[in-house]
Prior knowledge:
Bound molecules: iron/sulfur cluster
CATH superfamily: Uracil-DNA glycosylase-like domain
Helix content: 25-40%
Structural class: alpha/beta
Amino acid sequence: MRPDPDCRLCGLWEGRTKIVLPSGDPDSRVALVGEAPGATEDAEGVPFVGRSGKRLTRILAEAGVDRDDLLITNTVKCRPPGNRDPKQSEMSACRVFLEGELSSCEVVVGLGRSACRDILGYPVNMSEVANRDLRITIGGRDVVFIPTFHPAACVYGKAAQEGLRITAERIARELKP
Ligand code: SF4
């Protein structure tokens, strides 16, 4: 199920240029879920193509992962004003679309605290949970959930860089035939 092109289920419709739908392979067993589109994504209608997206694409490539082999999406499909975190009500309104997007996935990677909080339903300390396998139910299906750092966090420290590198290597193993 995809949002209507004029979706107004939450207030984020007011500031968007484009609804940002998933990119990559919709049938992939691995999905990456970020929190929300930024300015570049809003303009182009594609997730993770701005500065953070380029960093993510490079880290994946260094682990031998082509981003087109993954499903890449966000918890909300419209850009929050000023790049603020999405509100709980906005994530809840958009949840039906996220669950539809993840209907083929067996491994879901949450990028950053906000996306992980939405998917898990409780806040996490990323330095404690990054790259730990959690079993969750999403859209009525059991999946492995892996919390990890948002690529934007990599500019602030080596822990996030190293954490995301470990995640990329895990994704490479998950995609091996
Ligand atoms: S964020 Fe999701 S629910 Fe809100 S307007 Fe955009 S597509 Fe609709």
